[in-house]
TrEMBL record:
Principal location class: secreted
Disulfide bond sites: 107-117, 125-134
Entry's localization field: Secreted
Pfam families reported for this sequence: EGF_FBN_1st, Fibrillin_U_N
Any Gene Ontology CC annotation: extracellular region
Keyword flag Disulfide bond: yes
Protein name per UniProt: EGF-like domain-containing protein
EGF-like domain: residues covered: 103-135
Amino acid sequence: MRTRTPHRAELEDGGDRMPNVCGSRFHSYCCPGWKTLPGAICRNSCGDGFCSRPNMCTCASGQIAPTCPTKSSQQCNIRCMNGGVCAEDHCQCQKGYTGTYCGQPVCESGCQNGGRCIGPNRCACVYGFTGPQCERGKPGLL
């Protein structure tokens, strides 16, 4: 099933600008009295960047993230990884990452039997184990 992507629209008289969509299951269009504007829609502020696709900003640094820092926060001397944003002198990490530079993935349920967290809620299991948290032994191997 396809979902409708909201148009960035404004009233034809130059009034409010906001998402607005009418349409059938496979074709979306502006409702009567509205006109399509070019560009994507971002729910969060893009700071000193710009909205480049739905809910994603292209920041002044070239990074693509849900939000971008403003000039006051760009004075940071550190680079954040995995979509983290530099705020003053530390990184604010996106959900699923932690650490000084947001370089460490978080497995909320942990990894068992010697498994290692390699991505948000993603474990790499050692030989002989399987499952989302490496909780099951493979039959015949243990």
